[in-house]
RNA sequence: GCGCCCUUAGCUCAGACCGGUAGAGCAGCUGAUUCUUAAUCAGCGGGUCGAAGGUUCGAUUCCUUCAGGGCGCACCA
């Protein structure tokens, strides 16, 4: 028989769930037309059963040579992994399983590679990340995790739209890497002969839009940070940043709570278990001032430079050249953050570590800033945005003095924008990957990113990377 | 970057402590089988044991180095 193993258009095909919904008890006449991948095959000589799986689920197909005639030859060369179309009436087998009795079978794509073991699926972590498509085909938990991701992001977009925020896109390639403190990835534009940085944050561009009169803006997109990789860090990760003119960090806090509730409802509800901890996300979440937490858990006077330095050295932190606030923050990260099971808003950070945040009017040493923590993990960061260009210039200059990572010049263009007048505003950043991790109950960021960054391996002609990795001892 | 652990057939895993060149299940191939569903029955093929080097008469097993991966630490205000 002559047939194209890689098929073509298969019009008027029904999703498996939709086809199944058409069945009425006792009826043998309802004809359906489904398509999907064969994930199990049980042959019986002149008949066979196959599980045909599409995105919506599984539907069994039953092939009989007396029904298919010469097309039964296709059944004989079917492999697990092949993608096929099946036409025929629905019926129930004697064990009660809804099944399509095939009157026609169309080969839509041949699979040349075997699928992993049917019972255990693909377990090898490395292969699950390198060949995510196989992971998605064989492991329902993986499909479920990414469904949560899609639902969460969709829910957030709807939520932001309801609140009259507009979604915008700002540059990913920046002449100056700003808006956060992290080492950037460097690239180069040939025609302009210009060094560029992949953005570490969209903050400074979104604020330019506030200057331009856009009052509620947000962006959900990738940031790139040239730092270590861990269960909570991928070099490219997805961040939501939102800015609300005429708001402040209190409005941002309310926005965060409401958004997280909506995201949780779109996933698995407000009660979640993450990293072995049972959490209830029902708001309101407690607000804990930064310095009070510090005093409670570190028990060192945050103004006593000598004692702070001693405590730092004890903890293996080199305090040389650090202002007191930096030492406090090092100790805070090391001793306080892991204790924040949350969800909890840590509020009122020392202004010295918040170069883009406005100070409290009555307590100028403190910035109107919060971070949201859950199980020791920073989930969101927000503040009342600093809109005083003179003060902003001083803050940048101070950072330059301290040689903040990746910062070697003032962003004059941003300061110029501020000088035109930026409305007071609340700004918010949310780590989307971490939010999805929590709501999907997975412990590694690689589980919520389809293709996490891994070291390069070369494949041989057989496609087996393990056979052909870079040779030992060879340096290029 | 540092520490610990892992790498055996396409996949999931035994074997190693005590050195004698490997086993199972699934998948594949051949045959039987027209209501099976981890289908069943009979038979067959499949491995540079991650790579290189060392010790040894002999290494998948012991040692060293390297690669990839996992976890933790560091980095990430």
* Uncertain spans: 465-476
* Global mean pLDDT: 91
* Helix segment tally: 14
Number of β-strand runs: 19
Class of secondary structure makeup: alpha+beta
Q: Features of this protein?
A:
RNA-binding, five-stranded mixed barrel, 476 residues, eight-stranded mixed β-sheet
Describe the secondary structure blueprint for this structure.
Blueprint: H1 16-21, E1 31-43, E2 47-54, E3 57-64, H2 65-68, H3 72-76, E4 83-92, E5 98-101, E6 104-109, H4 125-130, H5 132-138, H6 140-162, E7 166-167, E8 173-174, E9 186-189, E10 194-198, H7 203-211, E11 216-224, E12 236-245, H8 249-266, E13 271-274, E14 277-280, E15 287-289, H9 290-298, H10 305-314, H11 324-336, E16 344-350, E17 366-374, E18 377-384, H12 389-401, H13 412-419, E19 425-431, H14 432-440
Parallel strand pairs: 3-5, 7-11, 15-16
Antiparallel strand pairs: 1-2, 1-4, 2-3, 4-5, 4-6, 8-10, 9-10, 11-12, 12-19, 13-14, 16-17, 17-18, 18-19
Helix pairs in contact: 6-8, 6-14, 9-11, 10-11, 12-13
The structure holds one RNA strand of 77 nucleotides.
